[in-house]
Amino acid sequence: MKSIKEPTEILCINQGLENTDLSLWHLQKEAKYKSPRKRRITEDWLMREVDEMNLNFGYWITLSFYSQVDDPVIQYIDNKHIRKVILDFLYPNKKPKNRIRLWFFVEQHKSKKLHLHFLMEQVDYEWWLGSRNRKIILHKNTLSKIISNQHSIDDVFTEALTNHLKERVNKLGKGKKSTKVLPALEMDKRVHYVNKSLNNWNFDKWQHIDFASSDFREQTKNQMENKTQCISQLESVI
Length: 238
Description:
Elements: H1 35-52, E1 57-63, H2 72-90, E2 102-108, E3 114-121, H3 125-130, H4 140-147, H5 153-168, E4 179-183, H6 187-194, E5 209-210, H7 218-237
Antiparallel strand pairs: 1-3, 1-4, 2-3, 2-5
Helix pairs in contact: 1-6, 2-5
């Protein structure tokens, strides 16, 4: 019988991943993950994805629902619909291959209910105004400001997108607090914020990132799926 003091080595069945360029790999070797460290590693990995994918995020969008859920998997289903609503707003007819890319993140309220943050790439406003997009909804006050040159094209796009989301996402309320569209600005601060759940373990592993609805590379999605499976194997043994 082996001594209880003798160390036991736990290996992932997919050991080939250890040699890939995935900064999250070594986490599966730790029996007890330290949340701040996991957060820093995840943030570093996401920032490298931004650079390597040449992402140009221009908008930080927050959606709060009057009909809230507490299960991330159910929220993922809603995210898929929200993604379709946004792409239909920009491309009402044929969707181009070089379409706008998005990253979706879920966050818990203190009530354990979920709301949504997502990053969206910057829209070319000349293209948006010149293309055959669908009709947009604007308030009369906005039209008045446009005529008097008090409204920028960025303001017009933001209001049009906000109204479009409220019209087509049933779980969104009609109030001002339900939909917030802000400039993405400093990406490192946005990425830091969306990973705050890794400090308090609100979700299982990386459930706060909706990989299915987000525009990550297929290779990255496959690596993360394998990563999660490996960590589950480790946790079942510990």
